[in-house]
Amino acid sequence: MTEISNESSKLPQAVEEFVLRWGDMGGQWGVNRSVAQIHALLFLSDRPLTAEDIADKLDMARSNVSNSLKELLAWKLAWKAPMLGDRRDHYVAETDLWQMANKVAQGRKEREIDPMVAAIRVAMAGVDDPRISPVVRQRLHSMHDFMNTVEGWYRQMLDVPPSQIMTLIRMGSKVVGLLKFVGGRNSKAEPD
User: Fold this and answer.
1) Cα–Cα–Cα angle for 102, 30, 98, nearest 5°?
2) What are the pLDDT digits (tens) for 121-158?
3) Which of 32, 49, 151, 167 has the fewest Cβ atoms nearer than 10 Å?
C-alpha cells in the first residue's frame, strides 16, 4: 500500500492519478468530484486522516472537505476514527471492496430505485381506470413486474457471499450460455 505521509502535501504520482480518476468516475456517476476524490484518498491511506490533512493533500477548501466528509459519512463509505491524544476528528474509508459496492448500491437503490417503485405502485392503484388504454395498462403492468423483479433480485444478492458472486462474475459468458441452454429447453416463449 502506498503510504500517504504527513510531511509533504505532495501526493505520490500513482496516488494522485488514482484520486483524479476516481474523482472523474464519481462525476460520471453523479457523485460530486470532491467527494469521490476524498474517498479515493481515504481508501488509499494507511492511517486515519484529519480534514486538515485531506484539505492540504488535495488542495481543497476546508469547507469543501467538511461538506464532502459529511456526504461520505451519510453513504457509510467513511467514518470517524478516534485517536488517543488528539481531539480532532480523523477519518477512514471502507476498504472492503464488496462492502463498498454494497453500500453504493444500497444508497443508489434508496435514492433512485425506491422512488420509482413507490411511483409505479401508486400508478398501479389506478390502473383499472377506464380512461387508461389497454396499451398503457400493459406497459404499467410490465414496468411494475420489472421493478418488482429487480428489487427482489437485489434483496437476494445481499445474501449471496462475495466469493460466490466473484465466481459467478468470473464465469462470464459461460453463465449466458447456460441461461440460453436452460431457457431454450424450458421456455421457448420467452424472448432472448
Assistant:
1) 15
2) 999 999 999 999 999 999 999 999 999 898 888 888 88
3) 167
Q: Which cell numbers in the block locate residue 55? A: 484539505
Torsion 90-96-101-105 (CA) sign: negative
Between CA 14 and CA 66 the distance in angstroms is 25
* 3-state helix/strand/coil string of 31-59: CCHHHHHHHHHHHHCCCCEEHHHHHHHHC
Cα dihedral 154, 158, 159, 161 sign: positive
**4 within domain boundaries:** no
- Give the span between the Cα atoms of 11 and 23, in whole angstroms: 15
Burial (Cβ within 10 Å: 0-12, 13-18, ≥19) of residue 71: middle
| Residue 62: CATH number of its domain | 1.10.10.10
Query: What is the pTM assigned to this prediction?
Result: 0.72
Q: Taking 50 as the threshold, does the pLDDT of residue 169 lie above it?
A: yes
Domain extent for 54 = 13-93
